[in-house]
Amino acid sequence: MSGAVWDELVATALVGTARRPVPGEVRRHVEQALGAPAPADDRADPVERAVLTAAGVMAAERRAGIRTPEAGPPPPPAVPADPRPEPSAAAVQLLELVLGGAAGLGGSAGATAGTALVVEWLDRVAATGRVVPRRLLPALLDHAATAAEVREPLLAAGGPAGPWLAARNPSWAWAATTDAGTDPAARAETWRTGTGDARFAALAAVRADDPAAGRALLEETWTGERAADRARAVQTLAADLTDDDEALLETALDDRAASVRTAAAAVLGRRPGSARALRMADRLRPLVTVSPPDPRTGDQIRREAAGSDRQCGEGVGRLRRTLAVELPGEPDAAARRDGIVDAGAPPATGRRAWWLTQIVAGTPLALWTDELGLSPGTTADLAQAHAELLLGLTAATVLQADATWAAALAGHHPTAALLALLPPDRARDLVTRALRTAADAAVPGLLATAPGPWPAPFTVGVTYRLQDLQNTMALQQALATVAVRGHPDAGPALEAWIATLGDAETRRRLVRSTTHTLSIRRAITQELP
Amino acid sequence: MERVLGLAPDASSARAARGLARTSTWSEVGCTDTLVFGRCQGSGKEPYQVTVDLTEPAFRCTCPSRKHPCKHGLALLLLWSEHGDAVGEVTAAGAVAGFADEWQRERQARAAGAAGRARAPRPAPVDPEAQARRQAQREEAMTAGLDELQRWMADLVRGGLAGAHRQPYAFWDAMAARLVDAQLPALADRVRAVGGAIAGREDWPDVLLAEMGRWQLAAHAWTRRAALDRATFADLRVVLGWPWRGDEVAAFPRVEDRWIVAGVAQGDDARIASQRTWLWGEATRRWVVVLDFAAAGAALRVPQVVGSVVIDAVTVHPGTGPARAAFSGSERVTEAGAAPPGQGIDAALDDVAGWLAADPWRERVPLALADVVLVDDGAGWWLVDPTGARLRVAAGVEPWPLLARSGGAPAAVVVEWDAGVVRPLALSTPATHPAPL
Question: What are the φ/ψ torsions at residue A211 (nearest 5 degrees)?
């Protein structure tokens, strides 16, 4: 059948048979199709009826004859099978329960808990050597589009189907493969010619396998990079940092862009053996006076500190040592080059105090032990009187990732960054101690620093402390942490608490929702053994 | 539990139902041998009254959801299936909640009425003469209505359709109302719908002229109805909207078979909810469709589970293509995991051509496709078979469930073909049972 005849017919109908004659071929077509002459002319409107009849016949023919002769794009390859088994039907139902938002976790706190549960489910699936059933991936990818913390676990547990699906849906672009493969040449090519995140993912991948090769790649394009990319590349060096990276970082300290200089100073701060660290030590040394000097050697002190359970106050009574710290003068050009700045001081901190903090933060911690003969615990004790010093020591400890110093400092002020350097049990012990004296308002923040998952005794201890909280807002925030990190075995303790709450409706609801989340987490563990 | 969730109209309902299947959201829960009932606290002030009749099962809920069964009914059934008779304390007291009792009485009364009508001997009072007179009057009215429609269309074509797409809906509604008066309700629906169908379309002249052509064919066929074979005349009755009388339906043949539930489609018209259950007969190797309708807010029949096999002697209406059918009421649902045999796209389109040649008014037909993959060509999604033959997927169909389930590997897909585009209804792979999409 000819498309031209149909077009002719439509054109006639559009203009109107009053103005345009019906083409003869249309008539012939109708007669042929009906196997009879067009409807008899003795009826009304013979021409119009012929046009309409032809339209009806041809419409059916056209519809029935719809074929798509031209070839389309070839199907993309199917996703390779993931050999890992799928979770049980019961485990899948748990996830659907959480994803459906129907787990009884109301409000924004509920959404956070829901996301935490999704993450836990995915982590558990991956950890037990299973793979997410493919049919669940669209809902999970949708969830991860707004909840970024789901992304890594989803990629780990989702198998190759996740990136495969995501490559077809722009709103899941984050999950589409940015991996340039494992071929070093391909990764290098991505770094040289790619754009955005994919470049830095390639650089990080090369660095992880071969730090020198990664640095060489960066040096190759260094002068052509935009300032923002230079700064980001410097930050990429922070992972897998080696001594050989120092020259490039020193170059970056002289960069014309402040962001690159700041980034380089921050990365160099992680290396107590770097030239910058030694320069910082030179700046600090004249400012600090300790009396009387310790007769022990630095090695002795470090050994004692490392072997000691008493990490704070050690030696204080015995030696009655004192620490005097002078504030530095205006930084010279070299100090400015090393990243000493005026901006970013904590509130109510003078400029000189802020400079001191930065100098201490950049100085190797060994200066205190090896040169000044102070143990970390003693230093921490003595520094309690000098806020700017304490701040600098804390920053240095975090940058240099020193667990001994972290233990000493966290005994006074547990911060999340310090506790993260400690074994989780030790960190939680410190939190437990701090919880005893902490003000209500500080409790949620303290709990947030305690690394999870929490063991049952710690969780139960926390719930006892929370029962004393008067502030409902603080209680809500604290319970949100209990819900996602606490041990499900704390359920009975929470139930007992609920029983004491009487008609305190709000508190009952908060605790009830926590037990609910804990029970779902228990079920996740049970269904994914 | 799987069986319960299989009743859900879609995945989100199933998920929501699981979430509600907790005792804390329910009050006054109880059950009898045939009923489960309870009140579910929803977002509204008053709890929804939910009742499930276990014999079918059939659902009723006072919630405003248009899905059927709604999540509350499913959740109640889940609760019951998990806890059995232990649901609620009411059981012991033997008291049935008022709303549940009332509903069951209504249903029993209706069922008794239907059974009575079916069982009663041919009602004697039917006066053949009166019936013939009524039929003659109806045919006269229909003839007059179709004449008017033809004159109206002829005037349009004479003056030109150029301005037709700018006509307000009232223009089409007015003609539709006259067709309703002429006892041509199905044709009236088509006329009413065309205003919306051509709105905002580039190719509206093609769509409008083709549709008007179909109306003209119907009118033309009506004038020759005495010469039409029975099946074609049945097709014509469907397009015009001349329903079969109860005694005519009762005389339709019953076809016994193992009917595979190949796919279920639900229509979402604002005024009426509809559901098409496509069945494939294993022995008869033919398609039939069970249609269910309900006014908005009322209960649609709970869909059969895709992949299950229904053993039944269904009543099959006359007609040329995949025929309308109705379950006998004593159907038996057996194993799951069955799918109709698939075919290549070219062979499937040959079937379509055959059906449309016989019934040019036919809108939707089912196709079981073998080994198809879903491909995106930048403008839309296509189902492609191993020969490279392609079928366009209807705009607005979410491709992700199909893509995720198939993983891009060839799969058996049951689709509803509608005017050249397809809507996937169910998918199965060598490793997985048929699942609704």
Answer: -55, -40
| Other beta carbons within 10 Å of A167 | 14
Identity of the residue in B14, B160, B360 whose CB atom sits nearest the CB atom of A19: B160
Q: Say whether A75 and B211 touch across the interface (CB within 8 A).
A: no
Q: Residue B407 is nearest to which of A100, A101, A161, comparing CB atoms?
A: A161
Gyration radius of chain B over CA positions: 24
C-alpha angle A221-A227-A232 in degrees, rounded to nearest 5: 80
Give pLDDT, residue B299. 74
The contacts of residue B316 (CB under 8 Å, 6+ apart) are B252, B253, B254, B255, B288, B323, B324, B325
> Are the C-beta atoms of residues A145 and A171 closer than 8 Å to each other?
yes
Q: Would you tell me which residues 259-298 of chain A have a C-beta closer than 8 angstroms to some C-beta of chain B?
A: none
The minimum CA-CA distance between B5 and chain A, rounded to whole Å, is 11
Mean pLDDT of A102-116: 61
ipTM score of complex:
0.71
User: Is 0.90 topped by the overall pTM?
Assistant: no
Report pLDDT digits (tens) over B81-94. Answer: 766 555 544 443 34
Q: Which one of B19, B214, B405 has the shortest CB-CB distance to A100?
A: B19
State the first-to-last Cα distance of chain A, in angstroms, to the nearest integer.
Answer: 65
* B366: helix, strand or coil: strand
| Cα–Cα distance measured from residue B254 to residue B312, given in angstroms and rounded to the nearest whole number | 9
The whole-angstrom distance between B251's CA and the closest CA on chain A is: 31
Q: Which residue has the tokens 């660095």?
A: A207
A75 contacts on B by Cβ (under 8 Å): 373, 375, 384, 408
Judge: B390–A68 Cβ closer than 8 Å, yes or no: yes
- H or E element at residue B10: none
Nearest to B15 among A74, A100, A165 (CB): A100
Chain A: residue nearest B159 by CA?
A: A16
Cβ within 8 Å of residue B84, ≥6 positions away: none
Tens-digit pLDDT profile for residues A362-380: 999 999 999 888 899 999 9
